[in-house]
Amino acid sequence: MERSPLARLPDRALKYGLTSLAALILILIVYFFERLFVEAHPAFSAAGLFGFVFGNNWNVSAEHFGALPLVVGTLITSALALLMGVPIAVAAALYLTELCPRRLLAPLTILIELLAAVPSVVYGLWGIFFLAPKLQPAEQWVADRLSFIPFIGGGVVTIPNYFVAGLILAIMILPIVSAIAREVMTTVPPDHKEAALGLGATRWEMVRMAVIPYCRPGIVGGAMLGLGRAIGETIAVTIVIGNAPQLGRHLFGQGYTLAAVIANEFGEATGLHRSALFAEALVLFVLTLLVNALARIFVVRTARGSRTPIVGPGEAPGDLQAAVAVGA
Amino acid sequence: MSALPIGTPPIPGDRLARFAVSSRRRRTDRAARGLLLAATLIALIPLGLILYYLIVKGLGAWSWSFFTTDPTGNTFFKSESIGGIKSAIIGTIEMVALASLIAVPVGVGVALWLVEYGQPRWFAHAVRFFIDVLTGVPSIVFGLFIYIALVVGTGSSYAGYKGSLALSLLMLPVVTRSAEVVLQLVPNALRESALALGAARWKVIFRVVLPTALTGMLTGVLLAVARAAGETAPLLFAAGATNKSTTDLGQFMNALPTQIYKDVTSPTESVVNRAWGAALTLVTMILILNLIARLIARRSRFA
Amino acid sequence: MSPDPAPSPEQMLEPGHSSPQPSGNPPATRTTTGVASAAPVTVLKPGPTIQLDGLRAFYGTAEQVKGVELRFPANQVTAIIGPSGCGKSTMVRCINRMHEEIPGARAEGRVLLDDLDIYDPSVDVIAVRRAIGMVFQKPNPFPTMSIFDNVAAGPRLTGGRKDLNERVEAALRGASLWEEVKDRLASPGIGLSGGQQQRLCIARSLAVDPEVLLMDEPCSALDPIATLKIEELIAELKRRVTIVIVTHNMQQAARVADRTAFMLSGELVEVGQTGEIFTNPTDPRTEEYVTGKFG
N or C: which end of chain B has fewer CB within 10 A? Predict the structure, then answer.
């Protein structure tokens, strides 16, 4: 088909326009990281990469920046979020996909997804004025009873603390972990479930035999995405963790996280301090990048699993990726 | 078949005794189902509590002047008014609107390129990879990106449009990935039949592909907008903090999440109440966006 | 009594090769095989009789099975044939109450296992499914389990069994798979060929020691050689269980079934000895179908 160059102009314009748009995005992202690295460099060269990440001393007035208390705080709160959030999220996903009466399915799903619509700052507000004060007596009780266990028992329970921050994060990651678990569970071929039922399995035995083993990598992936969220979450944690830049003595003591320090201190930071905060952002970013990359590998593997020959029809992994992208 | 080794005379119910489910299995099944239901209900408790407190505390703060006055900045003198959240509402609406105006065309454009062209392949892979990377970037890091590029980079100060840019970076991956998924759902037969009629590629894209995918993409866009509207962290070091109302995106700009974040740390009860009122306002706006997105999504399912 | 005189391999292969494409030829020559398999066989373990009594099945408001009366004699193979969508799969899924697992689906009427109505409220659906095993259209071994674990899945449900190894071996032998897999029991079940996977699924059902085996087009995803193996297996299995097999392949029905039932639009048109159905049907619609005039 021969067409004049003029008629093909809009086609070309569109193609190259869109291509350069995509290229522009790439260049922009690379530029951002390059700048982030340049800004962070003084902090790394002052303490060394190892000294910065593992130095246990964050002292702004002494210009000493060791991020260990913050890294540990981030890891503790995120781990707590996973411990509390993932079992509930997966169990709720199992209930919704395998047991829920059909009439309740849509309303329950929407309600759980609504948790994702609540802004981070509102979680913080609710956490510090409702959750944390209401929990404190119970936390003190647990701390007294378990005083023989290091890092958990003993000491004075403050209203903002690691545990409350972990609990708030658990609630915040619940919708995304649950949404991905649900997506993965709907890819279980009905053949497998019927095979289990045909053997005389109870509902729960069917879930254990056919659903959970098939979904395990996808569930792990969903949990990792939740972990990525928890690590990067800023405002809610800043409000409920107490913002004490040292290693907390115990679970119910005040702490700090990487993201919270940036939010709190960046406004008045200058010089090396500001560079240290950029360095933290870089550490934070690398952490989330690793976690998210692992998560994606797991989720995509499950999506592919349903495409093995003979067993199960090919499921479009597109929906799964949409869920991953939209986040709920 | 006269000799029956196991075929004992059938007694109703007893006929299947050999296959009966043990009470242990039955109990396990019931307990497991109960636990799963309990977990689902536990998951809903925080939502109920949050909405309850938002409504009770937030409605208490709502009044006509709450929406029509700026915060005064006064937090010490009880006799004086602390003001409302007018500047925060204006700021949120304007900044999110501008962020959408940037992120939606760019995001849909990138998605279109990925689905309709996507050549060379290594480049498409790279674009997808970086969009995925953006999805995982903590929101506060987006604020720092803009700070580096537009505050340090230009030597100027915070401004509303910089906040918009930070929010648009946050929206971009969500818009792109959801648009890509919807565009891929457009049947190839539709494209091919239009191309076979001799239509130019760009006409096919604008007349066939985009209109078909429109409602589906709208859902993703609205969810992205709702997410951006609730973000605080990217605004802190991009839009600045102010009490004054302004419609000028070149100035410092207040926003609902920023206002709530400021008020949370106050020891004064009336200021905290303003935070609840602002939070109820914000959540209402976000829920309306979510509701619209869901209604659209329900209508746009591809068969 | 002695087992059927086994047809020579050439005889067996000939219809097997042509089976994937149901030909329009009147299958008169093939009914000889069908008649042969209807000869009396040694019953190793007597199975039950199944009687459908006014069975109706629905998906929502659509009635898929419209009041079927049908008897499946003990230790015989009964084939259900009929065009796509005639309700034959639905009907078979009602026999072990798998039908009701589909949201919005329900069944009415009675299904008698000997004298017991399995739809009686006092009867436990799980016990029903253990008594009446099922083999599905597509081989569906559990993808995360080894060959051994797939077969052991059923027995393990009822608790730790000391004789698990023996039961697995017996089930695999019963499904004529033991010799092929005995050296790789720990490898994944989905690593087997399609035909082996289907026999693995049969072994999985047999491990529960059911009285009845329902087979829903068990060979539709298999090649002719694998199909032949399954058909040989069916002839062997009926010495221990009562078998109902749904098939869209008339030659297969002719080869394996003692009795054949023809269904159309959710209704039972005709049932009888396989030879009779294929050579001398009483209903003109059956004749049209078996001679390939429609369907």
Answer: C
